[in-house]
Specification:
The structure holds three protein chains of three kinds. By secondary structure, chain B is α/β, with parallel strands linked by helices. Chain B has helices at residues 13-22, 58-63, 79-88; strands at residues 2-6, 28-31, 54-57, 75-77, 91-95. The two termini of chain B are 20 Å apart. By secondary structure, chain C is mostly helical. The radius of gyration of chain C is 13 Å and the shape is globular. Classes of the chains: A alpha/beta, B alpha/beta, C mainly alpha. Chain A binds chain C through residues 35, 38-39, 41-44, 71, 75-76, 78-79, 82-84, and chain C through 60, 63-66, 68-72, 75-76, 113-116.
Chain lengths: 130, 96, 116
C-alpha cells in the first residue's frame, strides 16, 4: 500500500484523482469523467487520471465517431494535454487481461502494478470514480 | 483507509472486480440499492476480495424483501451505521 | 446536439441562425464574412492579430471537437504563435471581457464548456 517513491512525488502534487473504469461509446461514463477532469483543470486544479478495468479501452488508438456520427471520447482524451493533465496511470493487469500493450494506447501513460493502483486509491485525495 | 460503496446488482460483476482490485486491509465495503442482492449467500464468491469487511444497508434490504436472506458473513447496518462507516474512513469511493 | 435559433444575422444576403447566446446554430455556416459581422455587432474590429488567434481556435476545434476554455486557449496560442502571444493578458487585450467565449463565438465554434 505504500506508493513507490516516484508515485509518492506525483501524489504530493495533486488536487484530484479521476478513476475511469468504463469502455468508451457504450455509456456516458468516460465523457462525464473527462468533463470533471477538464473542468477541474480549467479551474487550476492539478488532476491525474487512473484507468482501471474497462477504462483502459478508452485509451485505445484508432477510435472514431460512432456509426450514426455520435462523437467519441477520443478527441477529449487527446485534449487532456492542452489542459496540462499529463499524469495518466494505467492498471497493468487491466491491460494484460485485455491483451493490450502500452503501444496500443493513444497517449503516453505510466503502467502501474496493483500495489501502486491501491496506493493511488488510498492517497487521501479527492477521488471520483466513473 | 477507504469506504467503498457499490450500488449495482451482482450482474454488474465489473463493479465488484474493480472495487476489489483496489480494496486493502482496513477498508470497508457497503452494499446499497441493487447491490443488496450481492449480500445473499449465492453471491458469496463475488465478495471474497473484500475479506469479510462487507456491510449492507438495511433499508434497501427491506425494500427488496431480502431481510432474513442475508449471508451470515455480511453485516447489516442502518442509516446510522452508514454514517458511522463514512466517519470512520478518510475517503469514500462509489462504484457504479 | 441541437440548438434552436433565437435570431438571425444577414451576411452577404444569407440568413445565419444564431442561438440565444449569439453562437452559430450550424457551425458549417461560418465564413470570414460571418466573423466580421459577429464582431461588428459587438463593435469589434478584426485585425490580422485577431484573425491569427481565430485560426488557432478553428484548428483547436478540428483537432479536439470542443471549444477551449481559457487555459487551453492560452496554451494553444502559445504553441502556434509563440510565447509572447500565448498569454492571458495579450488575449484579454485583443478580445476584452472573456477571450474564450468571444473568440469561440467569432470563430463559429460552440460556446466553450468547462469555461470560467
Amino acid at each position: 500500500m505504500t506508493p513507490s517513491q516516484s508515485l509518492a512525488q506525483d501524489l504530493a502534487e495533486l488536487d484530484l484523482i479521476v478513476v475511469l473504469r468504463h469502455a468508451p461509446h457504450g455509456s456516458q461514463w468516460v465523457r462525464e469523467g473527462l468533463d470533471v477532469a477538464l473542468v477541474a483543470a480549467a479551474f487550476g486544479k492539478r488532476v491525474a487520471l487512473l484507468f482501471q478495468g474497462d477504462g483502459v479501452l478508452s485509451l485505445l488508438t484508432g477510435q472514431q465517431a460512432g456509426p450514426l456520427g455520435q462523437k467519441g471520447t477520443h478527441p477529449q482524451m487527446a485534449m487532456l494535454e492542452m489542459y496540462d493533465i499529463e499524469t495518466l496511470w494505467v492498471s497493468g493487469s487491466a491491460l494484460a487481461q485485455r491483451g493490450l500493450m502500452p503501444d496500443d494506447l493513444m497517449l503516453p501513460v505510466r503502467v502501474m502494478d496493483v500495489e501502486d493502483c491501491r496506493a493511488v486509491a488510498h492517497a487521501q485525495l479527492p477521488t471520483l470514480v466513473f | 483507509m477507504a469506504l467503498h460503496l457499490i450500488n449495482r446488482s451482482p450482474q454488474a460483476e465489473a463493479a465488484y472486480r474493480d472495487a476489489g482490485a483496489l480494496f486493502v486491509e482496513g477498508d470497508d465495503l457497503l452494499l446499497i440499492e441493487d447491490a443488496c442482492y450481492a449480500a445473499l449467500p449465492a453471491a458469496a464468491d463475488l465478495l471474497t476480495p473484500f475479506r469479510g469487511r462487507v456491510a449492507v444497508l438495511d433499508e434497501d434490504l427491506q425494500a427488496r424483501g431480502l431481510s432474513g436472506r442475508v449471508d451470515a458473513r455480511v453485516t447489516i447496518v442502518d442509516m446510522t451505521g452508514f454514517v458511522t462507516l463514512t466517519e470512520k474512513h478518510d475517503s469514500a469511493m462509489s462504484w457504479f | 446536439m441541437t440548438t434552436t435559433a433565437a435570431r438571425t444575422l444577414v451576411v452577404e444576403g444569407r440568413e445565419i441562425e444564431l442561438d440565444p447566446e449569439g453562437y452559430l446554430v450550424s457551425l458549417d455556416e461560418w465564413s470570414p464574412a460571418v466573423a466580421e459581422a459577429l464582431a461588428a455587432e459587438e463593435s469589434r474590429t478584426l485585425t490580422p492579430a485577431h484573425w491569427e488567434v481565430l485560426e488557432v481556435l478553428r484548428d483547436f476545434y478540428r483537432r479536439f471537437e470542443m471549444a477551449p476554455a481559457m487555459r487551453p486557449l492560452v496554451k494553444a496560442v502559445k504553441q502556434s504563435l509563440g510565447d509572447e502571444k500565448g498569454s492571458s493578458i495579450y488575449l484579454m487585450r485583443l478580445f476584452p471581457e472573456s477571450p474564450a467565449k468571444v473568440t469561440a463565438r467569432l470563430a463559429g465554434l460552440p460556446k466553450p464548456t468547462n469555461c470560467l
